[in-house]
């Protein structure tokens, strides 16, 4: 059982203007409990509990509509020891395989097509294109993950992407037929430089395929655990379309997909040859206007919903602990750190299991909970397991079959708190 985490002195980060339009009138939507950087797992529980904590307030810009963090932590601190690896999440590997097939079929890509990915991680997605004979290039600032990508045959530049990097790539290798960016725009501080770089990279008839976590279902469901310091911005189609247009790109089609608790997959092309957007774009923009995205009304009541959801989880877990039950968690992810901090349940968890071997043996930021291999879910005798990776609940249920057969129960926080 972990001891309650002490509270180190609160650190102030830079308080920026709007990351997209430069506006200075952003208003706080949800004031969350301060947390350490969510991916900073530590070698000891003591080190994990002593990590500096930064404010985690969500704000809304009334000028352009962007929802972002009120404090932005230095990127070097957040990504100096990045451990999230795409290839360690089987459901995400399947997702990227399906995405690659869709892109290849829809755009009729042939061998030799040039495909560039921003935030390419360990090269999982680009590997599917490389296997079809395409010329691929990854761009990612995490050297260790880039080395893994190189090892699987995916050339990778270790650098933070922006317009200058794009210009160098075009000068050295030529423009790209496809530019991919999956859950990247949430992480970048200079949004305009990245979108400008995407526009520069594209061939005149090229296509950008960009996935972003969608702010509307996050707010509608009262979800908050996707809010952490790496995710500085949260998008609607309304905001993203205007941002792309500023740099000469038009979103021609959009899909709503299930990843990250609800995401948008946007297809964008240079505006001069983009043509008319599909009915899906028109319909979603209309739905956003009706929901109050354009004027910010959709955020009314979000803070109260977050408080209710975190309080409900606390009461359930505290009640189980009071009955003498042993409680563990599944998924030592960044979102787990946010969920633990806001619901104040860290003191009740004995350990957390994770499928990523990079995390095993380390301790979660803030609460200092030990991360164990997944086999401990079956062997270590917990009564309940909180599924922090709830959007992969079906895969977790399959992996936890022996645990459940032995009488263990899963606690799934969202979309509705469920014990099964």
What are the key terms here?
single chain, 420 residues, alpha/beta, Rossmann fold, seven-stranded mixed β-sheet, six-stranded mixed β-sheet, 15 helices, 17 strands, globular, SAM-dependent_MTases_sf, Methyltransf_Zn-bd_dom_put_sf, transferase, methyltransferase activity, methyltransferase
CATH homologous superfamily name of the largest domain? Answer: Vaccinia Virus protein VP39
Number of strands: 17
Flag low-confidence runs.
Answer: 1-6
CATH topology of the largest domain: Rossmann fold
Average residue-wise pLDDT:
92
| SS strand fraction | 15-25%
Based on Cα principal axes, name the global outline.
Answer: globular
Number of helices: 15
Question: How would a textbook summarize the main sheet?
Answer: 7 strands, mixed
The chain-level structural class is alpha/beta
Please give a structural write-up:
The protein has 420 residues and is an alpha/beta fold. The chain folds into two domains: 27-59 and 301-419, NAD(P)-binding Rossmann-like Domain (Rossmann fold, 3-Layer(aba) Sandwich); 86-293, Vaccinia Virus protein VP39 (Rossmann fold), CATH 3.40.50.150. The chain contains 15 helices and 17 strands. The chain has helices at 45-49, 75-79, 90-107, 124-130, 143-151, 163-173, 191-201, 215-220, 237-246, 279-291, 302-322, 334-343, 375-379, 393-399, 401-405, and strands spanning 27-35, 54-60, 67-69, 114-118, 135-139, 156-157, 176-182, 202-213, 233-234, 249-257, 263-270, 327-330, 349-354, 371-373, 384-387, 409-412, 418-419. The strands form three sheets. A seven-stranded mixed β-sheet has the order 6-5-4-7-8-11-10, with helices on both faces. A six-stranded mixed β-sheet has the order 14-13-12-15-16-17. A hairpin with a 6-residue loop joins strand 2 and strand 3 (67-69). Helix 3 packs across helix 4 and helix 6 (163-173) runs parallel beside helix 7. The longest helix is centred in the C-terminal third of the chain and has 21 residues, at 302-322. The model is unreliable at 1-6 (pLDDT under 50).
């Amino acid at each position: 059982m972990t001891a309650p985490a002490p509270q180190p002195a609160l650190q102030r980060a830079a308080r920026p203007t709007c990351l997209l339009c430069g506006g200075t009138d952003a208003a706080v939507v949800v004031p969350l409990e301060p947390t350490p950087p969510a991916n900073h797992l530590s070698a000891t529980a003591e080190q994990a509990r002593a990590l500096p904590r930064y404010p985690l307030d969500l704000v809304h810009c009334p000028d352009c509509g962007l929802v972002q963090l009120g404090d932005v932590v230095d990127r070097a601190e957040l990504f100096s020891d990045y451990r999230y690896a795409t290839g360690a999440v089987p459901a995400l590997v399947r997702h990227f395989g399906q995405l690659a097939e869709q892109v290849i079929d829809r755009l009729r890509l042939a061998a030799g097509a040039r495909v560039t990915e921003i935030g390419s991680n360990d090269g999982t997605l680009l590997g599917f294109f490389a296997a079809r004979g395409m010329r691929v290039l990854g761009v990612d600032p995490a050297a260790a993950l880039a080395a893994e990508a190189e090892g699987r045959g995916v050339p990778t530049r270790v650098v933070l992407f922006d317009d200058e990097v794009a210009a160098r790539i075009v000068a050295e290798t030529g423009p790209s037929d496809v530019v991919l960016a999956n859950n990247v725009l949430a992480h970048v501080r200079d949004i305009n430089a990245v979108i400008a770089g995407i526009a520069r990279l594209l061939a005149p008839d090229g296509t950008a395929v960009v996935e972003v976590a969608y702010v509307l279902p996050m707010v509608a469901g009262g979800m908050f655990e996707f809010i952490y310091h790496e995710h500085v911005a949260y998008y609607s189609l309304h905001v993203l379309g205007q941002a792309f247009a500023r740099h000469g790109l038009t979103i021609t089609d959009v899909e709503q997909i299930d990843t990250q608790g609800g995401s948008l997959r946007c297809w964008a092309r240079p505006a001069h040859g983009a043509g008319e957007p599909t009915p899906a774009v028109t319909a979603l923009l209309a739905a956003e206007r009706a929901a109050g995205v354009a004027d910010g009304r959709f955020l009314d009541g979000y803070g109260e919903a977050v408080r209710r959801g975190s309080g409900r989880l606390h009461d359930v877990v505290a009640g189980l602990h009071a009955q003498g039950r042993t409680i563990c968690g599944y998924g030592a992810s960044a979102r787990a750190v946010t969920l633990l901090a806001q619901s104040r349940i860290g003191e009740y968890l004995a350990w957390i299991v994770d499928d990523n071997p990079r995390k095993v043996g380390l301790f979660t930021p803030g609460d200092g909970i030990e991360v164990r291999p997944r086999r401990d879910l079956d062997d270590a005798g917990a009564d309940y397991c909180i599924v922090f990776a709830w959007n992969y609940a079906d895969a977790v249920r399959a992996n936890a079959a022996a645990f459940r057969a032995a009488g263990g129960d899963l606690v799934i926080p969202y979309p509705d708190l469920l014990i099964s």
